[in-house]
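Reviewers asked in the last cycle whether our approach scales beyond single polypeptides. To address this, we selected a multi-component target totalling 560 residues and predicted its structure end to end. The input consisted of the following lines:
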Amino acid sequence: MAYRTILAHLNDERRMMRLLGPTIALAERWNAHVIAASALPPVYVLPAGAPGIGDPIVIDEHRKSYQKEAARVEVAVREATAGRALVTEWRLEDAKTSSVAACIGAIARCSDLIVASQTDAEWPGSHSHDIAERLITESGRPVLLIPNAGHFEKIGNRVLLAWNSTREAARATFDALPFLKLAEEVIVISVNADQDPAGTGTVATADICATLARHSVKCTALNRQGTSTDAGRTLLAVAADRNCDLLVMGCYGHSRLREFVLGGATRTVLASMPIPVLMSH
Amino acid sequence: MAYKTIVVHLHDASRVEHVLEPAIELAGRFGAHLIGLHAAPGMVYAPPLPGAGRVVSRVQEYERNLSEQITKVFETMTKGRSFVAELRLLRPRDANDLGAHILQHSRACDLIVASQREGLWEMSRILDFPERLVMESGRPVLSVPLAGQRTMVGHHVMIAWNGKREAARATFDALPMLQAARRVTVLAIEQTDADGNSAPLPDTSIAAALARHDINVTIKTASVDRASVGEAIAKAVATERIDLLVMGAYGHARLREFVLGGATRHLMQTMPVPILLAH
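The resulting structure, written as structure tokens, was:
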């Protein structure tokens, strides 16, 4: 089982090398086709009749400056992949009147794995370009999130896999198989999730360890009882404690009208992840 | 890529063979561990009426017979095979958590095999299996038709593709089947609305993605209005002589459950060939 098409969403020039390095390393690991993609933000239109404004005003200055940035990103991609035995495709999409998430999402749905940055709330471009959460919930594919601090060349030597018998944990686990099979060790940890639909509180790591063993995954089970105040904190603490370089977990939440509201543990991890995290929904 | 752990749902004694046959074929093909799952509700509450005790013991006897029958058929059909087969009889304490209990045992596996809505299993209507399996297990579900084709062949596979998340899920979940197929067709569905305007044809880069997994596909397109999508799929399955359909299951979350959309439900109940579904 391998990832043969890897999409890297290079949304921010300042963070792109942090994404590109791991993407290239992973592509070489699985001999994958790389799609390095970015999207021009949509046009903003201020409608007519708003106080102080007459005719509709179309704003696209931000698109012009992003276009210049995208050109530099493309050059960086070509330089980083030159001379490597990899096929790399550069794609600059144009959100026009839709959204960056819609454009990149369409490519994501035809990829095995997506590599994206952790959200940077302080970045002015964040609200249109930091789309990691939407990619997780809307692509149906696993997303490898790279933290905004630190450099990560080797990802997946020691993996912490969060398992609590939920649908989301199942999705993340099996989506992560290519990583799990190559890991030196996979620690399977059961922590109570925010939402426990069964209400039974029972978590069985034995079953998932047996299933993973049939895929030749070297796994050991770890059970953490009781601490459900913030499962996210527990996971990050265990990952640090055990020197893990990748956390695999489900992305929890529920749909609310047109939004997706994330669960507490998921939000904690997304906000404070010190190591890469692979999430699926 | 292979399915190494397969869970097959066995609830209706009269049709155990029907759903076991394809499961056994797949387990042999992929060298998988096969887990047969059978759940009996088990009545623990006897209403305070005269004769209630007798009713309870008759129900318990019925369930015991059912379980024995299923066990016997399972053991006979899996004896002497090249793979390990295991039967799990689930007896949750009360029927309230039966569905959740079954689901918990259906998540640590590569593939679930279940029958189309089972007419004779009275719990099917209440628990809404296999639809609920599709929407809440997080695993791909192979829905075996009630009538028609019995063996799991998967020589000619068709993917119902509309570019959406669920179709992507189902396609990548189906990789082992696609790799084993002789012919794979992607049916790209373009939906037109009431005014005859069509949404753009879905992105078919999925063909390139599959080619990188050594799966070569032919693309066939269908342009239909929303109400006729199911019909278009059924027609293409017949025309192309498809023996396995791969498709996303659509629905929405309602309170804590998932409700299946009408088109998905209809196809699941009427398709004469197996369907691999994912959500």
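The CA atoms of residues 92 and 144 of chain B lie 26 Å apart. We regard this as preliminary and will revisit it once experimental data from Aim 1 are available.
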